[in-house]
């Protein structure tokens, strides 16, 4: 095989984001749910240049990460690519107890025998920026520092209370963190490379890059690719890394920019399952309701309760089937924005049951996946949309999906994909698996139409 890179995504939606950046950048990519072996790849995907594994480590504890990540990292290392990317969200979702990036960095350091870990978090195409080590993200027409961001500052699992990434990450690792800032990135490639080496010589083990515009993206891509050697580069970064690398590869003729992927066209009905509490998703739900989608609220309090879950799931399925039987587009959702009272009520039910409230994503996502699977089985629908990182990951597992390939872009970071599934009924399913904050208000309409 002639792989350029391998990667592990710390949640499902971020994993499809990387795949999209690579494919649109001219790098044929397949995203798996479990690490494949080389023989399987050669037989089924002989032309692939990048391999990804969609994970759920963003919702794991450090102990879970130590148990689950090493065998996956090792399997991907054995594929022999010159670069391995532990993909994180460009909003840096993490904390010492959940989705600890420091733990992932330590595991990668051991397995890949790293000398330094380059970290690129900004992705200007996705309106994520790093300036002097601080992370910013745009919502609508306003760009917020992450600790003032309307979603991330109030995230139910990993609220962002510090925008300086060195300080935020410093709570998760004892590794020494350095920075190449915007002023230094304005210098020549040679000066940037010298700064990088100086930081290494001074004992910095993680090197963060500012990222404000495409010029920075291209310079970082050139530097990163130049660092490859006998050992694979191990990077903890957002999908900004793929935008940086593909920009460099295209400039040097290493890969060719492909023609645009064609629109796939509309379907008669679309099924949407939303587990996201992001304001962006709330706007998309409102758009769907105003444009003829039948909306059914999922009762999270009952779905996370082992005694009540089966009956509640059955009620939802019957109500959903009745709506789909009338030819309606259907939207199932568990929250309408970050201030929805259902979020606190669901967490309170878990507390009352003596269960860890940090498992809410796993428990609710599993139930949503079961609902999606039964509805697709009973209706034969060929296109679906899932939103919310935990929901996407668990839904994909319930559908027996083992790999995804891009069909067409819908919004940056949220493409429509073709599923490869062990279940023949879902093999070839067209599915969008998107992060909550991604996409315009009419995103679900675009998925329905199969056109941007």
3D architecture notes:
With 452 residues, the protein is α/β, with parallel strands linked by helices. It folds into 2 domains: 247 residues, Rossmann fold, CATH 3.40.50; 179 residues, 3-Layer(aba) Sandwich (Molybdenum Cofactor Biosythetic Enzyme, Chain A), CATH 3.40.980. Helix content is 39%, strand content 20%. The protein is built from 16 helices and 18 strands. The strands form 3 sheets. It has a 12-stranded mixed β-sheet with strand order 11-4-1-3-2-16-17-18-15-12-14-13, with helices on both faces. Strands 5-10-9 form a 3-stranded parallel β-sheet. Strand 6 and strand 7 form a beta hairpin. Helix 3 packs parallel to helix 4, helix 8 crosses helix 9 and helix 14 packs across helix 15. The longest helix has 20 residues. The two termini are 34 Å apart. The model has no long low-confidence stretch (mean pLDDT 94).
